[in-house]
Amino acid sequence: MLTNGDFEGDFTDEGVGVGWSRFFNGDASFFWARSTWPPVVASGAQSQGMSIADTPKSDRYIGIYQTVSVVAGASYRLELSGLIRALNAQPGSYDNRMQWGIDQTGGTDWTAVTEWTDLGWDEQGMDTADLTMGHYTTTITAQGKKLTLFIRGWVKWPKNPNRAEFYVDNVKLVG
After folding, report:
1. 46 falls within a domain
2. Is the model's pLDDT at 48 over the cut of 90?
3. Are strands 96-103 and 146-155 parallel, antiparallel or unpaired?
4. d(CA 174, CA 157)
5. Angle at the Cα of 136 (from 66 to 117), degrees rounded to 5?
6. Does some domain include residue 84?
7. pLDDT of 80-124, one tens digit each?
8. How far, rounded to the nearest angstrom, does the alpha carbon of residue 38 sit from its chain's CA centroid?
9. Per-residue DSSP letters for 107-175?
């Protein structure tokens, strides 16, 4: 249902998997890229990488989204894998998080999403030798003929130096 949800296809010049679009809220350094480093790839050869650095303000967001056609009232299973790496990581601190949200009308304004769900993945250190890939599954019920899935990384506090990397792979919407 999603285009290039496994991120094995091409990437745009902006570093976003073809079929996806990007969003961010400024006041930091933002970067999207294809990642081929095996520890951040859940399966296949590539994943979507997103990073935020030099955060002078709190609540900096980076993300990707995609709009799909659905059947109103139908249930869909959302699955995705990924992880968070951070400079000076403190697992369990909730400093850097990953979330997903839905616009049930198919809109593309991420700031209009009223409910974001945390994926439950703790940040891991940049120097962590054995990274742990997180996995997430839930069920969504479509309300209209289109919906937009947003996936975002969130840096909560201003820090310098700071860098947080958010990786996502194997995004599926099955119904």
Report:
1. yes
2. yes
3. antiparallel
4. 35
5. 65
6. yes
7. 999 999 998 887 788 999 999 999 999 999 999 999 999 999 999
8. 18
9. ---GGG---EEE--PPEEETT-SS---EEEEEEEE--SSEEEEEEEEEE-S-EEEEEEEEEEEEEEEE-
**For residue range 5-44, what is the model confidence (pLDDT) as tens digits?**
999 999 999 999 999 999 999 999 999 999 999 999 999 9
Q: Tell me how far the alpha carbon of residue 85 is from its chain's centroid.
A: 13
Does 16 reside within a domain? Answer: no
The structure tokens listed for 149 are: 């899935």
Alpha-carbon span 164 to 51, nearest angstrom: 6
CATH number (domain holding residue 66): 2.60.120
Q: The domain containing residue 46 runs over which residues?
A: 21-174
In a domain, 107, yes or no: yes
Measured from the Cβ of residue 39, the count of other Cβ atoms closer than 10 Å reads 16
Total domains in the fold of the chain: 1
Mean pLDDT, rounded, of the chain? 96
Amino acid at 166: F
